[in-house]
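lol ok so funny story. i was supposed to be doing the assay writeup but got distracted and ended up predicting the structure for this chain instead. priorities right. anyway since i did it might as well share w the group, maybe its usefull for someone
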Amino acid sequence: MSEAAGGHSAGPVGIDALLERIRVGLERVGPHEAFDAAANGALLVDTRYAALRDRDGLIPGALVVERNELEWRLDPLGSHRAPEATSHDLHVIVICNEGYASSLAADSLQRLGLGRATDLVGGFQAWRAAGLPVRAPGA
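and the output, tada:
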């Protein structure tokens, strides 16, 4: 894919360089910003795998979507979309465990036309460290 067609150079790139490049286009948020955004209608999307959710708990109100289903569930035009995926203007904040995979996921959502998609700096671990609400596993 050419740079003009896909926005990225055609040559190989390491993951650290890719993350740096992607994050330039994201308005990443911290834990308290994410909490406030959710109170104002943003959709928090937890993409951590089940073992981490079972170990560490859940963010109350967050939509749980496994990473491999994310684009299918959040595409407002998709046949497998979640009921919450109502518009391309939806403010989506993707949350992974530590804030790395979520940047890649938010970039992918932006490519689907969800221009307000972003991610949580530091992921779930930063949310928990900030003392924000967490529902205990199994609760």
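The longest strand covers residues 43-46. The beta strands are 43-46, 63-64, 92-95, 118-119.
back to the writeup now i swear
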